[in-house]
Amino acid sequence: MCRNPFKYAPVFLCLVVSGLIFVLRNIHSVENWNCHTISSLYHIQKRIHSSLLRANLPTFHHNRTYCAHLGQKPSPEDEVEERYLLDSIAWPGPTLYSPTALRQTSDPVHSLFTILPSKEGREWHVGDQLEVLVQIHDFQGRPKRYGGDFLVARLHSKELGAGVAGEVLDHKNGFYSAVFPLFWVGPAQVEITLVHSSEAVAVLRRLREERPDRVFFKSVFRLGFLSETTVCNLCLPSDQEPLCNYTDLHTGEPWYCYKPKMLSCDTRINHAKGGYLKHLLTNNEALLFQSGVNLKVQIHASGPDRVNVLPPRKDTFEIKSSSVKPEDIKLTPSGYYYKNIWRPLDGETMGQFNKPSSIVQCLKNKVINMYGDSTVRQWFEYLISSAPEIKEFNLHSPKNVGPFMAVDSAHNILLKYRCHGPPIRFTTVLSSELRYISNELDGLSGGPNTVVALSIWAHFSTFPVEVYIRRLRHIRRAVIRLLERAPGTLVVIRSANLQALDQEVSLYNSDWFSLQLDKVLRAMFKEVDVLLVDAWQMTLAHHLPHALHPPPAIVKNMINMLLSYICPENKGASWH
Ligand SMILES: *[C@@H]1O[C@H](CO)[C@@H](O)[C@H](O)[C@H]1NC(C)=O
Ligand SMILES: *[C@@H]1O[C@H](CO)[C@@H](O)[C@H](O)[C@H]1NC(C)=O
Q1: Which helix (H) or strand (E) holds 188?
Q2: How many CB atoms neighbour CB 442 within 10 A?
Q3: Taking every annotated instance into account, which residue ranges of this chain make up the domain NXPE C-terminal (predicted)?
Q4: Does residue 264's CB lie within 6 angstroms of at least one atom of ligand 2?
Q5: Of 399, 470, 519, 540, which sits with the fewest C-beta atoms within 10 Å of its C-beta?
Q6: Which of 238, 240, 247 best tests ligand 2's pocket when mutated (most atoms within 8 Å of CB)?
């Protein structure tokens, strides 16, 4: 009987357990319900945000240099340099596209090129210069009388894996010369491409000056449960709504967002690409950007399009009968491909770092800091995938955004990547991770074991060139400070590259924008002790199609170039 009190214990226990289960189940579904409701509220809120975002885009005063004038005023010396730089990239041709009919604009199909001299009997030797004359016609077959067409030229041989970029000279009368130095014995085929007609360039020029808002940005502001999203850009018209001013205190680089309605400016948590404005072109203008018609289309030869190059001449006497004056040739090739390997012409021989061990050996004891857009992030990715000993350290950063870090502690290698400051069209960068390159450089100790690799171009094509000049000025100052306080620091700059273009991409990212920025970049760093990886020529000279992120075959050559700069004495197997 003494056990009686426990007689009903199993029943009691069962009741308690089932009660508990009931309660737990209910709690669970209540939570589910809450979660669901919160998430649908969040989605609704998000949808409202993004539609408001588009509706609330500012109306721009579409006047020239509106954007350029925001931010601090350049010093008198800076202004002189800016003037010089802008003059040096002045582009001939119509400045305004007066809506002439398509049939009066440049047509690659009616245009022709001729290898000079066109008569028989000319021999070409390595060391000579091959000259090509291009004549542009319109869609009716009539010769154009003014310049400004954007042409690119390449001499190549598929069999030999050879290629070199040509220099194009605009005679401003519808004729163009393309000039190629001859580097290899054997076949060499000329390829001339009309990237844009002069009329299309006029449209791009207008967009660049008047529509710096054609790519817009956004930021989320958050405090507790409240969150708001507003539009941001380098410049926003200040007469429409209150602004948050995120101008960088060190550099004076401007950045603005519209002030959220309820939250304060210091609740900004991130930065992201907002979107691309549509309907930027009139119907007439749109005809100037047709893939396969007048956008990156090859021009045919009127006669042969190739020559056979003979070994170098023995005699030093060479009869020059060139119509191109040597002083007109500004862009000398920085290298050429042979057997698909880039051969730089600056006296450096490029090592081949084909084995992971040769990469690791070269980078031993180095800290490599990469700053910039996704084209230098590609270098980070290439290095960690080709040298698995350099392991990525998980910083829990968003994919493709960073910051990223990779370490090989056995060889004391540290590899870092961080994106450049706004304008940056990445998906979502936390506000706390938004940094300007010049400020980052100021925070480096530097020295012989430090490498800095920079790439900054692609996100600036939607702005007037002055914006890019200002940014490079800040970076250049920081580079000079770094080299002065820490001699032996190696600074490598990756240039812009060509990319695949269709109508839409052209308006935001055309190679014409990139070329203009690239010329400025080269001029501004000419006198500074930095090394260049010429991505422009490496993509132009190569047979693979142009791509914003060049294919691995080209990146490999860039990396070999970088590694040759880092360890010139330790070249791996030289190609000689
Ligand atoms: C552009 O428009 C803004 C706003 O109306 C004005 O303040 C500015 O002076 C104009 N700039 C030029 C160069 O006309
Ligand atoms: C934003 O802040 C900077 C730096 O404090 C200042 O120079 C600039 O005038 C401000 N911009 C506006 C529109 O108030």
Answers
A1: strand 186-196
A2: 15
A3: 342-567
A4: no
A5: 399
A6: 247
pTM of the model: 0.87
Does the beta carbon of 242 sit less than 6 angstroms from any atom of ligand 2?
no
- What's the pLDDT at 119? 72
Ligand 2 pocket, residue 240 CB under 6 Å? no
Ligand 1: centre distance to CA 228 (Å): 30
Q: How is 211-242 classified by DSSP, letter by letter?
A: -TTSEEEEEEEEETTEEEEEEEES---TTTS-
DSSP 8-54: THHHHHHHHHHHHHHHHHHHHHHHHHHHHHHHHHHHHHHHHHHHHHH
DSSP state for residue 567 in the 8-state scheme: -
Nearest to 89 by CA among 524, 536, 547, 476: 524
Nearest atom within ligand 1 for CA of residue 64: 13
Per mean pLDDT, which range of 22-36, 157-171, 424-438, 536-550 is the poorest? 22-36
Burial 346-365 (b: 16+ CB within 10 A, else e): eeeebbbbeeeebbbbbbee
What pLDDT, on a 0 to 100 scale, did the predictor assign at position 36? 45
Rounded CA-CA distance 226/243 in Å is 19
Residue ranges lining ligand 1, Cβ < 6 Å? 61, 63-66
Task: Say how far apart CA 212 and CA 231 lie, in whole Å.
Answer: 13
**Confidence band, pLDDT 50/70/90 cuts, at residue 410:** very high
The contacts of residue 177 (CB under 8 Å, 6+ apart) are 131, 132, 133, 134, 168, 169, 171, 323, 324
Phi, psi of 244, rounded to the nearest 5 degrees: -100, 130
Among all bound ligands, the one having the nearest atom to the CA of 236 is 2
Closest ligand to Cα 248: 2
- pLDDT-derived band at 97 (thresholds 50, 70, 90) equals low
How far, CA to CA in Å, does 485 sit from each of 397, 415, 444, 491, 519?
32, 22, 10, 14, 28
Nearest atom in ligand 2 to 238's CA: 13
pLDDT of res. 572 = 46
**67 Cα to the center of ligand 2, angstroms:** 14
3-state secondary structure 514-530: HHHHHHHHHHHHCCCCC
Amino acid at 43: H
Residue nearest to atom 8 of ligand 1 (CA): 66
Per the document, the length of the chain is 576
Task: Give, as one character, the DSSP assignment of residue 572.
Answer: B
Do 176 and 191 touch, CB atoms closer than 8 A? no
pLDDT at residue 63, as a whole number: 55
Closest listed residue to residue 381, CA positions, set 571, 536, 555: 555
Q: How far is CA 195 from the centre of its chain?
A: 17
Domains of the chain listed by start with CATH number? 104-203+287-328 (2.60.40.10), 337-566 (3.40.50.1110)
Closest C-alpha to ligand 2, atom 2:
247
Closest atom, ligand 1, to C-alpha of 61? 2
pLDDT of residue 68: 52
Distance 302 CA to ligand 1 centre (A): 50
Query: Which range is least confidently modeled, 24-28, 342-346, 400-404, 422-426?
Result: 24-28
pLDDT for 207-238, tens place per residue?
998 888 899 999 999 999 999 999 999 988 77
